[in-house]
Amino acid sequence: MRYDNTGKHKQTIPHDDNTPHTLHVFPGYITENNNGDVLVSDWRRHAVVVTSGGGVHRFSYTGPPSGSRLEPKGICTDVMSHILVNDGYTETVQMLDRDGQFLSYVLTRQTPGMDYKPGGLSYDVTTHAVYVGSMENNTMSVCRYINRHLHLTDEREHHSNFDEGQTQAKI
Question: What HEC string does 74-135 produce?
Fold first, then answer.
């Protein structure tokens, strides 16, 4: 179900009868993309399950092209409708396009300051920062990976910009 900012019921999304299985088995995190898609990290399906705003299954993302298994945790989207997902299995934050195609890693274990297992994930539309919460050591990393000026002047897909800085804070 969807609700507006005041808590009033807006919409009930029906199950798509054309989907041969239950859409979600053990949902963890949920978010909505700019195009109206609803994204759910499903821990038992080992997938990010994406449906249209009307409840029709669009795709399920099960991991990067290398074929590794996905353990989806936090998910969010950015201003360009990229999908960001924390993968507990590879301990990375992966970026997908709006149609579920893997684009790049935003954070990996080799990223300076990334010394924990990522869990919660949030994106700040004002600063273009990604907040990554730890599942094991009570810390949070902040990474700004989109160059705002590129976004404002160029409509092409952009990849991670690690040079813009990352900080880590104890919470």
Answer: EEEECCCCCEEEEECCCCEEEEECCCCCEEEEEECCCCCCCCCCEEEEEEECCCCEEEEEEC
Q: 118 burial class (0-12, 13-18, 19+ CB within 10 angstroms)?
A: buried
For residue 153, the model assigns a pLDDT of 39
Residue 1 lies in a domain: no
Q: How confident is the model at residue 18 (pLDDT cuts 50, 70, 90)?
A: low
Radius of gyration of the chain (CA): 16
8 domain-assigned:
no
Nearest by Cα to 122 from 88, 84, 154, 151: 84
Are 47 and 68 within 8 A, CB to CB? no
Q: Determine, yes or no, domain membership for 47.
A: yes
Q: Give yes or no for a contact between 57 and 23, defined as CB atoms under 8 angstroms apart.
A: yes
Q: Are 48 and 85 contacting, i.e. CB atoms less than 8 angstroms apart? A: yes
Q: What is the pLDDT of residues 22-61, one digit of tens each?
A: 777 667 788 999 999 999 999 888 899 999 888 888 999 9
